[in-house]
């Protein structure tokens, strides 16, 4: 008889609306990322639509399985919206966010997954998104970026859960640090020459 893991079962129940998955913490700006944004010659940026990429299973947007537990996003029950909110939080902290800017950043969540690597004492998570920058109808930037993390997992469930959620939330900071320090992104979002 085929066994079904607790994580898979909880995920199926959460998707069906039978189980209310615990909600992760709201995103907090990272000092290093904010500093990097401020240091770059970026213009003011608006944040447009974020959604799940075409062809990706809805589960990737709705829940994340970490250490056998299922968690939901605190933003509209959607991790693509959590990513959008994280970007707004970072840009706002760096004083580079302007909802009415002609420079608009959009994106699609391509991958959002947690699991184990190598042994039962190691856990992992990965998030990946495709980002675009447009000025009016012109596409200035279009790139897929990913971030992943592997950590040592505790056998104590409560400790493992705290560590897993912390590592996962920090993953968004890593992803955005890659985006904001990408030379192509910085060129696309640079302040136009006055002349």
Topology record:
Layout lengths: L5 H11 L14 H9 L6 E7 L6 H4 E4 L2 E4 L6 H15 L9 E14 L5 E14 L2 E15 L4 H24 L2 H6 L7
Parallel strand pairs: 1-4
Antiparallel strand pairs: 2-3, 4-5, 5-6
Helix pairs in contact: 2-5
Question: Can you walk me through this structure?
Answer:
The protein is α+β, with helices and mostly antiparallel strands. It has one domain (about 25-190): Lipoprotein like domain (Double Stranded RNA Binding Domain), CATH 3.30.160. The chain has six helices and six strands, in the order H-H-E-H-E-E-H-E-E-E-H-H. The protein has helices at about 5-15, 30-40, 60, 80-95, 155-180, 185-190; strands at about 45-50, 65, 70, 105-115, 120-135, 140-150. Strand 5 and strand 6 form a beta hairpin. The chain starts with 5 loop residues before the first helix and ends in a 7-residue tail after the last helix. Residues about 1-20 have low confidence and may be disordered.
Entry summary:
The protein contains six helices and six strands.
Rg, alpha carbons: 18 Å
Q: What coarse outline follows from CA principal-axis ratios?
A: globular
Determine and state the CATH class: Alpha Beta
Q: Structural class of the helices, strands and pairings?
A: alpha+beta
- Main sheet specs: 4 strands, mixed
- Work out the count of structural domains: 1
CATH topology: Double Stranded RNA Binding Domain
Helix content: 25-40%
What percentage of amino acids are in beta strands? 25-35%
Give the strand line-up of the largest sheet. Answer: 1-4-5-6
CATH homology superfamily: Lipoprotein like domain
CATH architecture identity: 2-Layer Sandwich
Q: Give the SSE order as H and E letters.
A: HHEHEEHEEEHH
Mean pLDDT: 85
């Amino acid at each position: 008889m085929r066994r079904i893991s607790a994580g898979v079962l909880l995920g199926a129940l959460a998707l069906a609306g039978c189980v209310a998955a615990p909600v992760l913490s709201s995103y907090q700006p990272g000092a290093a990322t904010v500093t990097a944004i401020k240091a770059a010659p970026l213009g003011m940026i608006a944040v447009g639509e974020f959604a799940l990429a075409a062809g990706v299973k809805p589960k990737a947007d709705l829940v994340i399985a970490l250490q056998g537990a299922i968690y939901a996003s605190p933003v509209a029950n959607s991790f693509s919206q959590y990513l959008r909110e994280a970007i707004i939080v970072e840009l706002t902290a760096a004083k580079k966010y302007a909802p009415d800017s002609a420079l608009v950043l959009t994106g699609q969540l391509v991958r959002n997954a947690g699991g184990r690597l190598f042994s039962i004492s190691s856990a992992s998570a990965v998030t990946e998104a495709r980002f675009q920058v447009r000025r009016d109808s012109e596409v200035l930037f279009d790139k897929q970026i990913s971030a992943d993390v592997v950590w040592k997992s505790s056998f104590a469930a409560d400790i493992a859960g705290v560590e897993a959620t912390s590592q996962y939330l920090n993953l968004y900071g890593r992803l955005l640090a890659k985006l904001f320090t990408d030379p192509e992104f910085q060129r696309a979002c640079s302040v136009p020459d006055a002349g």
